[in-house]
Design a protein that fits this description.
Blueprint: E1 15-20, H1 25-39, H2 46-63, E2 68-77, E3 80-87, H3 108-115, E4 118-124, E5 127-135
Antiparallel strand pairs: 1-2, 2-3, 3-5, 4-5
Helix pairs in contact: 1-2, 2-3
């Protein structure tokens, strides 16, 4: 009996796609997250990862003038899935105070902070990547 090959639990393949810097790109980003998680047999992370990528895309679109963004989903280790959004702006994201009296917007990073094990920003000469890591069970 020949068993189907299983993807490597970490490393490649990673999943990424360059998208227009528009709100509508969040839907394509969510599809990319679903594809990556299904390939890694991590569908249990889907709801959380979709919410995280939606917030990261929304922040990149709203707070930068990037004409394009890049969505990146990877497995830096067996324990984590990393969801990131790259933009061309060097403006660092700020986590607001949860006690601030904000209308309906401005709480995206608070949500990411609550859902992710950790999150951060990698600053590059040409822009940045804002990322969040979600804990997953080791591949079986």
């Amino acid at each position: 009996m020949i068993l189907p090959a299983r993807p490597h639990p970490t490393g490649h393949p990673g999943y990424s796609e360059t998208l227009p810097g528009l709100e509508e790109s969040a839907e394509t980003a969510r599809k990319l997250v679903r594809t990556a998680l299904a390939a890694w047999y991590l569908e249990e992370l889907e709801d959380t990862a979709i919410l995280v990528v939606s917030e990261l895309v929304a922040n990149a679109v709203k707070h930068t003038n990037s004409r394009v963004i890049r969505v990146v989903i990877s497995r830096p280790s067996e324990r984590f899935v990393r969801v990131g959004v790259v933009d061309r702006a060097r403006v660092m994201p700020e986590l607001i105070n949860p006690d601030d009296d904000l209308p309906t917007g401005g709480r995206g990073l608070l949500l990411v902070d609550a859902l992710a094990e950790r999150w951060g920003t990698d600053l590059h000469r040409w822009g940045k990547q804002v990322w969040a890591e979600l804990i997953c069970e080791p591949a079986r």
